[in-house]
């Protein structure tokens, strides 16, 4: 086999980690979910995307960031009706992130960026950021979703009127990042048009007020949008935009 | 003195509350904050706006909603350096909302809308929504910030390049809703332009990645934007948009 | 409209709050409940009384105390069978009070007095006081119920053999403090005599051992005592005694 | 050695415990503290009194009550400055009592009486009672302090103007119940008169508002009152009153 | 009655406790359980053994150790189907031990040894040890089960193929330490041979993987092994080995 | 790239997961740690071993088990002085495992085996097993460390007098399972003989009483034993023994 993966803290020895504190002052934490992704995508889709993006961002940063331990399971109660979904409580995810942060801070890191492939983790990450202002005031804690960073590229794909979970953008990313895990022949459109949604479900699609519904009330097969319409090249475009944005952010952060 | 305030559950007797469960199937919960609002606005600004908006929404709904107990303090660790700010932990706010929800649900209500005047509560409300999917699956739980509902109106006010907390939109709302609490003569612009921000502070203004900084690192006087540029009429326009949007949402919700 | 309410921290700006730390070294926190109060009193009775008493105490102290954020909901599981009651857990109320205290302490206040209109909050406040001895040893934390401060005046009203919740003393206070919220025509006596109670219910009336029963096992209409026997003047006498006692306490506290 | 102690659940086998559920429908739980008791009394004074009183009450009930596991440590943060004091948090004591209660309830008991020798446990027991109303509605949960049950007898002892912790009443009880643990030659008066207290300390002696101070600010030797003035006979009178009151309470409870 | 028990912190005054911090630098904490012990042993068996062993160890150490407050109830969910068992949650036991430790540490002790008669407490004690490394780094925290310290002596007793809870070793100890609590005529063998166990139950007897089953699925009468085969002398041999091992451990600890 | 990894739930779609509930009734959860492993092994050593062993066990079971989401970080406070170590609290790990278990149980699985490469997780897993007896009584929850399953093989390697963390057995496993991650040229013996340990450190090596010390007090380089003495073949022997034992356990479990 080959050498340890560069930029991966887990592959380093403790002595290498000690050097990384100064050489690589940013730690990236990939956060995923373990949840249904429709007929064609695997349960770990969000973790896979987050880990691959972190690899690409770390490579783009040429050693100025290391990748810390993953958060393989996220907050997914809205997918629990679908087999295989494992969800943790917001408080548990918050504790995990805060404890990762505390120990990385103890070793000397001051910049931490959690990259979540699952938007269901956003709210919890927002609360962690608030808590860390008090508990670790010298730590700069940032977090980001993935697809939202490439909104313009996604819009350019020609997405369905209703799209989102396991739809065009997410499927495209996986076709690019982990094509061997996509069951291309089973990809199937889910709810794609507003009129397919119940009146109650429509209320969940308007931003604010935010109304939470379990996914089985939004789409029978767990998909919002049409995953059959996208190609690996679409995914490459989305991923490139995400990675560029994140590299630029960290560049600016390190220069600030 | 006059009669009990209509639509206010707290002003009702238990017998009236029992009737309200069927007559008024939506409960509005105003959520605020107790935090600095610059030289000219009071600490309770966010609660005041939330409570007044709930009054207007309930009036607009003509009895189909009642207003439940307030959440007067929110999650404001980023304002703690400014005197008077009182902040509670996300877990405490989450427990409060979940316990309000559980008892309202016990009495028969199935639709609950938390109206928060403070965006710092958004993340916590998002986690509560996730938790309630599991603990009270028959409850429909919605929440909303205020100003974000009137984004187009705010944009039309001609806001500063940098604007937000205690700035144009918020000051306008208070000039309309509670003018006696605005120290008009002390209103002062805070950070209004990107170039006034430190490089690190600029990173907090771009959406994602989200980077949390305490407010004293963003603006010396606690204000983002220029509160001197707005009028009560501006506030009326913003509030009208918010109230209309919320009444329409509840109308659709009740019809769904 | 008129000016901000004097003594109300929530109506102040952050600069005014900074001055209040030295000018007004005591913070009063009104604590209420959101619970049934029989056929004639509103759910928010306890909060209303606590807030009005705090206003009067602050006025009596002529600027030496400010009123902080309210605690609108208390610990009321014994009233849950009656519509409209919202109760929070002791641990949640304790967290709230401790977090209010921590931030007020952070800004420099060292004397905090929680004024609770609801005796169901007493036990929790007692535990908070114990916890604060360890976590904030320089803070002087005091708390008080209302009616218990005027025991002699209440006794002089000629109360029923069994009296208490929503009975003579509480109704009198509300008739004085918020008459527009009393449904005078619906006030109805509840359990007023020992012989009306079940043998088990009688055991709850003797002080110690303390036995907790839900209120529907004590009184069909949620009232203990006869609220029809009292007048606004009775309430004025009770409230005056409470306010005098509290002003005297704070006077002595500030002089100690 | 002799036989197992009658009435002690811990001395019974599981088969005997199964019989006790119906034969002895009340469970007594002795609760103590592990805290300074001045120069002459042992740290475990409160547990010893609670356990001995439970023995006497169980004997007086002739088999209708059993004694469950003790709570040897209580909530004593106000005594922490004195060597040997061990205090647990209110939340920890509350969890312990609630978990004892849940398992005793699981086996079929429906009446539980916690007998606390330490008044510092009262507030926590009050919160437990509230929580159990919701979690175990069929359980009848009662709790009681000791000395407060014999207020008239204590008053008749001719106590000091200031009296209480490790003072006349408590010392007398221990002289009667566990004379071998009293260092009679070291018993020393503590603060006995109001004028000996600082102005701040005086505020703690008036009931309400309740102000918590650590004990070293009330009395240099940890004693309130004069333990040298009492005799074992005084203690017998106090204990008899306590036991009679408790036996009568349980008699009434079983008959209710 | 006689004098206070030597070595028992609870029997000491605060002044004596202050001296013990230096004279007796080790604190022993007896931990038990309140759980079924088959037809012949009492529910408190584990606490009794732990307390008696602590007495003997403290005596053997001649004043270099004191005995702190007991932990009378442990983690026993696997015995809950048997009447009388009271179990607390691991988190509750952990909080208790950590809070005992924090206060003993506050007074100056730096060596704490928890002696648990119940192996069901082992896992929790292991987690407490881990937590204390971070929260009280100067504290040396040790814990030990009892019977496991005398494995060679137990093997020499000629135990059943399947043995353990309430079996040979435990019964022998109680026959020696508290014979008045053993119902010798009711002692009955439980599951003693592998072939008596269900295939699933056999999987619990092999160390690792560890599989947890409730005890009613292992043995109808709650006993593993044959308690009728042992004598008080067997118990003396087991106890002597345990005490010797513990005295030697503390000797080495104090010399380290 | 190739197909999804067989037996990995994360690589499956929700439909495949639904089939796996019946086809593969055992879920394996790999648990690791993120902690120093001396000069030659990577921080993620324990996770890597756990994941590889789960792969081999699942393969050995030919479809009767699936591999669920990993637990990449464990309880490692004793390694915190060494750079790179990230540790979570026992309560956080316990919550994670319990929440994984609850959702897997919700989908229908009844047999869950956590395979931990890090012995520091053992105590927490023991407490989780106890909690699950109450919360999910139909779930059969098992857990296992790795190296302890191959004690005889390890003994046969000719290990140092003092050996353990990052020593012979662990290094051999990694040389076999992930040789590309071993810095063979940097492997260095740590503490290998009893006389090298301080008297206090020696007390940690005797089983019981268990005394916890941070690792920097046991070994300067974080290693116990001599990792230079072992070969990949040694590792293969250890791993084969572990895998065989686990396959046999699951076989027996499924047959029980």
TrEMBL record, chains A, B, C, D, E, F:
GO terms for molecular function: hydrolase activity, acting on carbon-nitrogen (but not peptide) bonds, in linear amides; metal ion binding. One of its GO terms (biological process) is riboflavin biosynthetic process. Its cofactor is Zn(2+). Keywords: Hydrolase, Metal-binding, Zinc. Belongs to the creatininase superfamily. PANTHER family: 2-AMINO-5-FORMYLAMINO-6-RIBOSYLAMINOPYRIMIDIN-4(3H)-ONE 5'-MONOPHOSPHATE DEFORMYLASE, 3-DEHYDRO-SCYLLO-INOSOSE HYDROLASE. This is Creatininase family protein.
